[in-house]
Amino acid sequence: MLIQTFNVGKTYKNGIAALTDINLSIDYGEFVFLTGASGAGKSTLIRLLFREEPPTAGQIMIGGRSVTRLTVPEMVRLRRNTGVVFQDFRLMEKGTVFDNVSFALKAVERPWPEIRRRVPEVLERVGLGGREHEHVMNLSGGEQQRVAVARAIINNPLILFADEPTGDLDPKTSGELMQLFDEINKEGTTIVMATHDQIIVERMQKRVLTLKSGHLIGDAVGGWQL
Q1: Rounded to 5 degrees, what are φ and ψ at 220?
Q2: What CA–CA distance (Å, rounded) separates 32 from 51?
Q3: Is there a contact between 7 and 23 (Cβ–Cβ < 8 Å)?
Q4: Any residues with CB less than 8 A from the CB of 64 and at least 6 apart, and which?
Q5: What mean pLDDT do residues 201-210 have?
Q6: Are 161 and 153 a contacting pair, CB within 8 Å?
Q7: pLDDT score of 113 more than 90
């Protein structure tokens, strides 16, 4: 298994339990949706899985290693093999498309010739070929999210986490983005995506993990489980 959690919990300092006793397994190459109402714990679980936050209980394993016990070099390797896409894009607003996408390569100290070659390649992949010198704030919301996807996949990650990536997009743009995610998954990348979009979930017919009040209450393949 690629991802495993054992009795994982997350309680914040204010005493609110965001997650309780989460046990799940996700295999290599799967496409998994995390669904549930607002406040169910979807985003919290995503943050725990890519190690933005630590759990307060339980164990998270990625590729057979505990993410809470990784050494610094092991954490660097995990970051290189993980891509993340956020609902609010998290782009460098003062930068160009090239600046934002190349940042992921610079963060892992890739050489400049590779950066110069790879950025145009991945922009072509997400439908933004030839636009590397445009300022990101001049792009539409859908185009900005494509920049975020390009940044997330430029290191050819083993896992791609996406937290409500279509939440601020119109239906047409959402559909195009989901087609792109589906293609990325078919090339071998494991995708774990939090979403509240029932239409997308039912259209894609992938595995669906359902959360309610911080508890995992459903695990099935197909449509909406609420």
Answers
A1: -150, 165
A2: 18
A3: yes
A4: none
A5: 94
A6: no
A7: yes
